[in-house]
Amino acid sequence: MRHELKIDDRTLSYLDFGGPGRLLLALHGGLSEGAHYAGLAASLGDAWRVIAPDQRGHGDSDRAAEYSRRGYVCDAVALLEHLDPGGPVAVLGFSLGGINAYHLAAARPDLVAALVNVDAPVEGAEGPSPFDFLHHLPYTAPTREQLVAACGPFGESVAPSLRQLPDGSGWRLPFHPQDTLATLAEFRAPQWDVWTASRCPALLIHGRRSQALPQEQADAMTARRPGTSYAGLDTGHFVPFEDPEGFDDAVAAFLATL
C-alpha cells in the first residue's frame, strides 16, 4: 500500500508491503523506485514487513532542493521515526540506496540493526561514467511513446515506470536526469571511513561481473569491516534485476541469521 510523509514542504512517497514481521527498510538504486522491491517482499513473506520509499526526486516523491548524502539520510531517518518501529531495523540498499544505507548505519547506529549492501561501492570506478547518457536525456515528452523513443536503448527498461504529468500535458521519467547527476557528483571522495564506521551485522551482495564494484574492492570491503559476510552472484551491477531469485535467496538467508 502506498503512503505519503510530509518532510518540510516535500512529499516522500513510500510503499508498505505489510505483514506482521520485522521491519526491513529497502532503499532502491538510482534511476529506480521503491516498487522494484515487490518481488523481494513477496519472497520474504510474513517474516519481514518491507518498507520501500521512493527516495527524494524518484518515483512519486517530490524533487528536492539538493541531493547531498546528508539529505538522503535525513529522509530515511524521518521515515523511520514516522514509522516508529520500536527499535533498530534491518536496512537494505542497492547501488545509490546501498551508499545511503551504509551512511545511515554510520550516522544513526541506534536505528540500524543490520545492513545489506547490494553492489554499492566505497570508491568510484575508474574510466568513463556509465551515466554520461543522462546529460542528453529528456525529463518529459508530449507522449509516452516519444519519451520512450527519446531515451534510446534505456527506453524499454524505463517504460513501465513512466508517469503522466498531473495536468495531462505529457509524460515524465520516474527521476530527473539532472537530479541524478547532482547525486553522482556527491560521490567523489572514497567512503571507507563511513563504510567501516558501523558495527551491526552486514552482508555485501556483489555482482561478480560488476563494473561499479570491482572484485578487489568488494573483497576489501568484506575484510575491512568487522561482521561483514559476502554473497557473490554471477551478474553485473544490476544484481536484483539480473538474478532476482539469487538476490532474494541471499537476502533471506542473511536475515534468517539475525
Describe the structure.
With 258 residues, this protein is of the alpha/beta class. The chain folds into 2 domains: 2-126 and 176-255, 3-Layer(aba) Sandwich (Rossmann fold); 138-172, no CATH class. Helices cover 33% and strands 22% of the residues. The protein has 10 helices and 11 strands. The strands form 2 sheets. Strands 1-2-4-3-5-6-10-11 form an 8-stranded mixed sheet, sandwiched between helices. Strands 7-9-8 form a 3-stranded antiparallel sheet, covered by helices on one side. It is globular and about 50 Å long.
Secondary structure: elements and pairs:
Elements: E1 2-7, E2 10-16, E3 22-27, H1 38-44, E4 48-53, H2 69-83, E5 89-94, H3 96-107, E6 112-118, E7 140-141, H4 144-150, H5 155-158, E8 163-164, E9 171-172, H6 177-185, H7 192-195, E10 202-207, H8 215-224, E11 228-233, H9 239-242, H10 244-255
Parallel strand pairs: 3-4, 3-5, 5-6, 6-10, 10-11
Antiparallel strand pairs: 1-2, 2-4, 7-9, 8-9
Helix pairs in contact: 1-10, 2-3
Key terms for this structure?
258 residues; alpha/beta; 2 domains; 10 helices; 33% helix; globular
Helix content percent band? 25-40%
CATH architecture of the largest domain: 3-Layer(aba) Sandwich
Order of helices and strands: EEEHEHEHEEHHEEHHEHEHH
What low-confidence regions span 5 or more consecutive residues with pLDDT below 50? Answer: none
**General shape:** globular
Total of DSSP H or I helical runs spanning 4+ residues: 10
CATH superfamily of the largest domain: Alpha/Beta hydrolase fold, catalytic domain
Strand arrangement within the widest β-sheet reads 1-2-4-3-5-6-10-11
Terminal Cα span:
26 Å
What's the total count of β strands? 11
- Mean pLDDT over all positions: 96
Rg, rounded, reads 17 Å
Structurally, the number of domains stands at: 2
Overall structural class, as computed from helix and strand content, comes to alpha/beta
